[in-house]
Design a protein that fits this description.
Layout lengths: L8 H9 L5 E7 L6 E10 L2 E10 L7 H13 L17 E3 L2 E7 L13 H18 L12 H10 L6 H19 L6 E4 L8 E4 L2 E5 L6 E4 H12 L9 H12 L6 H26 L17 H13 L6
Antiparallel strand pairs: 1-2, 2-3, 3-5, 4-5, 6-9, 7-8
Helix pairs in contact: 3-6, 3-7, 4-5, 5-8, 6-8, 8-9
Bound molecules: adenosine-5'-triphosphate (ATP) and L-homoserine.
L-homoserine binds next to helix 8.
């Protein structure tokens, strides 16, 4: 169940009075999300219908929100098709519902492409869009340490190791070390704001054309190439967890058509594709193993299969990725 926080018409109407965007026609909870509660909200202003999405944040605190509010507005102002928090009549975008952070954002129309239907054209377009996202975000004035980044995976890989068999535990630790070695090598790896979770279900397409990138709540300051590795592992993955060279080539070409890779990035790519696989293996393992997530206040969580990401990691080790 994706709607963790239920709201009443009265609560929504009260929130909307701050905005002057029109009167409430309807609202409906969106199924499918994992981390947040989302509603489609339809308003009528001067006899015209306008659609919005209301997001209520289940995990992020109010203190963490300004980075995301500012980022959405920053990217949208630079023509990146992402949702952004609309400011109310007093210039305030960050609202609260039931004591949780809440944002009202424009709604995009499109649908995500199911994994089995992803083609080279989708991968080329998402590569291009990600490079534009990175370029627009390169001089974003706020920074953020990823909450599931290097410090998290160092800590969590230790914390769960007693629940894993010796082989898995060693594999996890090996990948944590490989990333530490990469960092120590001080390579020329461009950094900036990254999306952090650009899986295919976070992109909307219409008639095979990319419409928008959603769900930026894992955004952080990190290596741009690591973000591309997250995309590659998801968008170019076959059902048997090997990687499709045709889709991966299209993804990399799309990205490079906007931003050329550095020589050091070509060196780092095989490791970063492994790091990105390890990160999602670990983040899926934790709830899978029944470890309580302290930040979550109830609500049944939809579990994703950690083994898929272990297999992707093994594929990346067996056949090291090539950037160019
Ligand atoms: N601005 C928007 N325009 C159109 N649809 C949206 C918008 N924001 C969210 N949605 C819809 O809501 C769904 C869930 O949103 P989102 O991915 O942000 O939530 P989430 O709980 O973080 O999910 P997950 O963790 O699974 O990615 C999206 O897949 C999309 O269908
Ligand atoms: N995209 C993540 C879940 C949401 O962060 C995963 O597939 O594990």
């Amino acid at each position: 169940m994706a709607v963790y926080t239920s709201i009443t018409t009265e609560e929504l109407t009260l929130l909307l009075t701050d905005f002057n965007l029109g009167t409430l026609v309807s609202y409906q909870g969106i199924e499918g999300g994992i981390e947040n509660t989302n509603y489609f909200v339809t308003l009528n202003k001067d006899d015209a219908i306008h659609d919005y999405v209301l997001t209520i944040f289940e995990e992020l605190s109010l203190e963490e929100m300004p980075f995301f509010v500012e980022l959405g507005q920053w990217l949208a102002a630079r023509n990146i098709a992402v949702p952004y928090a609309i400011k109310d009549q007093n210039g305030i975008a960050l609202k609260q519902l039931k004591g949780k952070p809440a944002l009202l954002q424009p709604r995009f129309f499109g649908a995500d492409v199911p994994a089995t239907q992803l083609k080279a054209t989708h991968c080329f377009q998402i590569g291009e869009a990600l490079a534009k996202f990175h370029e627009a975000g390169a001089d974003f004035y706020l920074t953020r340490q990823a909450h599931r980044g290097v410090f998290w995976w160092r800590r969590e890989s230790e914390a769960i190791s007693h629940l894993l068999d010796a082989q898995d535990s060693a594999l996890l630790k090996q990948e944590v070390r490989a990333f530490d070695q990469l960092r120590d090598a001080k390579l020329n790896l461009p950094m900036g704001v990254i999306h952090g979770d650009l899986f295919h279900d976070n992109a909307l397409f219409k008639d095979d054309a990319l419409v928008a990138i959603l769900d930026m709540y894992n955004a952080a300051t990190a290596y741009q190439l690591y973000d591309l590795a997250i995309v590659a592992n998801d968008w170019c993955c076959n059902t048997d967890c090997t990687l499709d060279p045709i889709r991966e080539k299209a993804l990399l070409e799309g990205y490079a058509s906007i931003r050329a890779f550095t020589d050091d990035e070509a060196m780092a790519w095989p490791v970063l594709t492994r790091t990105a696989a390890m990160r999602f293996w670990l983040s899926r393992l934790i709830p899978w193993l029944g470890i309580a997530q302290a930040s979550r206040q109830g609500g049944a969580m939809k579990l994703k299969d950690p083994n898929q990401y272990k297999q992707i990691l093994l594929s990346r080790i067996k056949t090291p990725a090539v950037l160019r």
